[in-house]
Design brief:
By secondary structure, the protein is an alpha+beta fold. The chain contains seven helices and 13 strands. It comes from Stanieria cyanosphaera (strain ATCC 29371 / PCC 7437).
Length: 310
């Protein structure tokens, strides 16, 4: 095998990385046309969230693998991790994980969270070698919004706020996630969506302050599939606030002219999971959450979050 070099993934390499991702995942899933993986969803915009947390694997200066990390304060996200099919089972993933884990140590991440294929013993065993263990199933759910009744949008759109109001909203969003898990910080995800025109963030307030927000992806370049609004991350203070947030996401999707709303939930957050099903969402894909260390974190019944950990 050619010598493999691990380095930082460069912005100029993102188009190649996106193609590599489609080829790798599409091949693993057995698609007849692997390059159609994702149905228009794109994932390499994550590079702009944390350029120093994206690593490339190269052989003879050719990109053959990469991974991306997210710094969420006390927690960290991991993925995607991608290797060209021609280089599977040759230790490339292990080298990328070693680089990633060093970055998590630098960030002093208390909890690393991601997901993998629930039906793949190979992947679950692989991550276990690095101290990352499987926990609960994650349900990626979808709902058609074509038949819902049109209502005015009551949630506030982050993109339509003044700079002062945006700063206030970012602070309030952090206060909300910090209450869910100390130090959890999704502000970089809100800013990424705003700065890269990947969608918008919906905010719901009451007399006590911010009670819920949803980071929504849609359109070209985003992580949403064609004709879909994808709730990448969302958090609410209570069941009532969570239900309001879902309803506002449905209304927003209809306003955008999308045909479906997509949201994922860790089934460890059983109350949020049951509420999604009660709102007529249906499970499209199951994956399994992976934690390092093997602790609950914010995957608890009393927590109302949307996060499929991809």
């Amino acid at each position: 095998m050619n010598s493999i070099k691990i380095s930082l993934l460069q912005e100029s390499e993102l188009p190649k990385a996106e193609k590599l991702l489609r080829l790798s995942f599409g091949t693993f899933l057995g698609l007849s046309e692997p390059m159609n993986f994702g149905n228009g969803a794109e994932y390499t915009s994550r590079w702009y969230r944390e350029p120093l947390g994206a690593f490339a694997a190269k052989a003879d200066d050719q990109l053959i693998g990469f991974c991306m990390l997210a710094n969420w304060g006390s927690c960290a996200g991991f993925g995607p991790i991608v290797t060209h099919p021609d280089y599977w089972d040759q230790g490339i993933g292990s080298q990328l994980i070693t680089a990633s884990w060093s970055k998590f140590d630098e960030w002093k991440s208390q909890q690393i969270i991601f997901c993998t294929h629930a039906n793949s013993p190979k992947h679950i065993y692989f991550y276990g070698k690095f101290g990352a263990e499987p926990r609960f199933l994650i349900a990626l759910c979808t709902k058609s919004v074509l038949l819902i009744q049109s209502q005015p949008l009551k949630a506030i759109r982050y993109s339509q706020l003044s700079s002062e109001q945006q700063a206030e909203s970012l602070n309030a969003a952090y206060q909300l996630t910090d209450q869910i898990y100390e130090g959890l910080d999704w502000r970089s995800e809100i800013l990424l969506v705003q700065q890269r025109f990947l969608g918008d963030t919906l905010l719901i307030w009451d007399d006590t302050g911010l009670i819920g927000f949803a980071i929504c992806h849609y359109g070209t370049g985003s992580e949403a599939a064609k004709e879909s609004c994808y709730v990448k991350l969302a958090a609410a203070k209570s069941a009532t606030a969570f239900e309001q947030l879902i309803e506002q996401c449905e209304t927003f999707s209809l306003i955008l002219g999308m045909s479906s709303l997509v949201a994922g939930v860790d089934t460890a957050c059983v109350n949020a999971y049951r509420l999604l099903l009660a709102k007529k969402f249906r499970i499209a894909v199951l994956s399994v959450s992976i934690h390092k260390p093997n602790q609950t974190g914010y995957s608890r019944p009393d927590v109302y979050v949307i996060e499929d950990k991809r």
